[in-house]
UniProtKB/TrEMBL annotation:
<feature type="transmembrane region" description="Helical">
    <location>
        <begin position="177"/>
        <end position="199"/>
    </location>
</feature>
<feature type="transmembrane region" description="Helical">
    <location>
        <begin position="400"/>
        <end position="423"/>
    </location>
</feature>
<feature type="transmembrane region" description="Helical">
    <location>
        <begin position="314"/>
        <end position="333"/>
    </location>
</feature>
<feature type="transmembrane region" description="Helical">
    <location>
        <begin position="225"/>
        <end position="251"/>
    </location>
</feature>
<feature type="transmembrane region" description="Helical">
    <location>
        <begin position="146"/>
        <end position="165"/>
    </location>
</feature>
<feature type="transmembrane region" description="Helical">
    <location>
        <begin position="105"/>
        <end position="125"/>
    </location>
</feature>
<dbReference type="InterPro" id="IPR036259">
    <property type="entry name" value="MFS_trans_sf"/>
</dbReference>
<feature type="transmembrane region" description="Helical">
    <location>
        <begin position="289"/>
        <end position="308"/>
    </location>
</feature>
<dbReference type="Pfam" id="PF13347">
    <property type="entry name" value="MFS_2"/>
</dbReference>
<keyword id="KW-1133">Transmembrane helix</keyword>
<feature type="transmembrane region" description="Helical">
    <location>
        <begin position="12"/>
        <end position="34"/>
    </location>
</feature>
<dbReference type="InterPro" id="IPR039672">
    <property type="entry name" value="MFS_2"/>
</dbReference>
<feature type="transmembrane region" description="Helical">
    <location>
        <begin position="81"/>
        <end position="99"/>
    </location>
</feature>
<comment type="similarity">
    <text>Belongs to the sodium:galactoside symporter (TC 2.A.2) family.</text>
</comment>
<keyword id="KW-0812">Transmembrane</keyword>
<feature type="transmembrane region" description="Helical">
    <location>
        <begin position="40"/>
        <end position="60"/>
    </location>
</feature>
<protein>
    <submittedName>
        <fullName>Na+/melibiose symporter-like transporter</fullName>
    </submittedName>
</protein>
Length: 441
């Protein structure tokens, strides 16, 4: 067994599709709710309910596509073929959702939102499983994750820049979200073809095939995975709350709507710098401890935002810089740990089922975001917060916005730290696992 990562050129081709896929995710959860609320007469509570409903559908589609990703065979292998055929649906749904007609209503949002969720799930699950199996060593997986998540952050920067450069003041014509729609429609299929053509199918170490029922039984018995999944859900929920409220916090609490785009750009630009920092820290401390220290520091720094008010843009910029660096840890390290806990299942079950595991991972991610929208937006409504960014807010509404944005995320982050601090699957334990996986082929 070796901890050597694939060549950098190969990792770069593998990472390419993460750019357009990231350009889907961030606008969908941060820009799209406020865009539809501003221009299509939908309340924040309604939009939150639609997003939560989409996530409930994912409870079915995520395990289905994960299972299919593990079972579908072609001359391209399990992962590459299943990923490639998904890209047309994903690109089309993103195009329609981000460039809606001027008479779009709740039904339009729900239909194309579901289509995009299905397409994105279909694309993401074989893609992430492909990466988990492409690099097999403890630190090699951190490097691969760094390439993919670095590309994800580049896509996020594109997703931040285009809407604000193109403008979000109107739903007519070629607005900012339409720019994103065109970018995804062109870039995703092209990046998918380049990745499939230049990155090989990973080795399948399966010794048997499990029934779906037996597979879920092994998944439930995988203690390291359950611990990691619980911590990841808590931390993802904590991160999703400020992400959902960022535009409102900057525009209404800080009174600086013109800084929404620049501050988001700063945040994600710093996250790119945080990726190599996460790699170096994980090499020194181990993956789970490095992630814990990043979460501790994030709690301390992010709480500062709760004491900011109108005009405190410079102080909030510092918060964005530091928490952006720490986001690099959140994006890079948990998926690398997830790949390790799959090895634990492969040893016990005899089947390498990365697709099913990343399906559970994907559902946790989506559930966290949907819980944020389904909980936070109705609470804002109850506090009298008005979704129109030009509206004058009451002091009670602004206080609620601040408490939800800055203080609520700290509690789930602290719980995630408690779960992961003494995580059992360190580098030595993982080396033993890989020896068992590769020695039984």
């Amino acid at each position: 067994m070796t901890d050597q990562a694939p060549a950098s050129a190969r990792l770069a081709f593998y990472a390419l599709p993460a750019i357009p896929m990231a350009a889907i995710a961030l606008p969908f959860y941060i820009v799209l709710p406020t865009f539809y609320a501003d221009h299509f007469a939908m309340s924040l509570a309604t939009i939150g309910a639609v997003l939560l409903g989409i996530r409930l559908i994912d409870a079915v589609t995520d395990p289905l596509f994960g299972w299919l990703s593990d079972r579908v065979r072609s001359r391209f292998g399990r992962r590459r073929f299943f990923f490639l055929i998904s890209t047309p649906l994903t690109a089309l749904a993103a195009f329609m959702l981000f460039w809606p007609p001027q008479d779009a209503g709740v039904g339009y949002l729900a239909f194309w939102g579901v289509a995009l969720s299905i397409g994105a799930t279909w694309s993401l699950l074989p893609y992430t499983a492909w990466g988990a199996e492409l690099a097999t060593g403890y630190q090699a997986r951190v490097k691969l994750s760094a390439w993919r998540e670095g590309a994800t952050l580049v896509g996020s920067l594109i997703a931040i820049t285009l809407p604000f450069v193109g403008g979000l003041d109107t739903a007519a014509g070629f607005h900012g979200l339409a720019w994103i729609a065109v970018f995804i429609a062109v870039a995703l299929p092209l990046a998918g073809v380049l990745a499939v053509a230049n990155v090989p199918e990973p080795v399948d170490f399966s010794r048997r095939k499990l029934s779906l029922r037996e597979g879920f039984r092994h998944l439930r018995a995988n203690g390291p995975f359950l611990r990691l999944a619980s911590a990841f859900l808590l931390n993802s929920f904590a991160n999703a709350i400020p992400a959902s409220l960022f535009i409102y916090f900057v525009g209404q609490r800080l009174g600086a709507p013109a800084m929404q785009g620049p501050l988001l750009f700063t945040y994600f630009l710093c996250a790119i710098a945080g990726v190599p920092l996460a790699v170096a820290t994980a090499k020194r401390l181990g993956k789970h401890r490095a992630w814990c220290f990043a979460m501790i520091l994030a709690c301390a720094v992010f709480s500062v935002a709760g004491f900011l008010g109108e005009g405190d843009v410079l102080a909030f910029t510092v918060v964005c810089v530091v928490t952006g660096l720490l986001l690099g840890f959140d994006l890079t390290l948990p998926p690398a740990i997830q790949a390790d806990v799959i090895d634990n299942d492969t040893v016990s079950s005899g089947e390498q089922r990365s697709g099913l595991y990343f399906a559970a991972w994907s559902f946790i991610t989506k559930l966290a975001v949907a819980l944020s929208a389904g909980i936070v937006f109705p609470l804002l409504d109850l506090a009298g917060f008005i979704g129109d960014q030009t509206a004058t807010q009451t002091p009670e509404a602004l206080t609620t916005l601040t408490a939800l944005y800055a203080f609520l995320p700290i509690l789930p982050k602290l719980a995630a730290i408690a779960l992961m601090w003494n995580f059992s699957l360190d580098e030595a334990a993982h080396q033993r696992l890989r020896s068992s996986v590769e020695g039984k082929t």
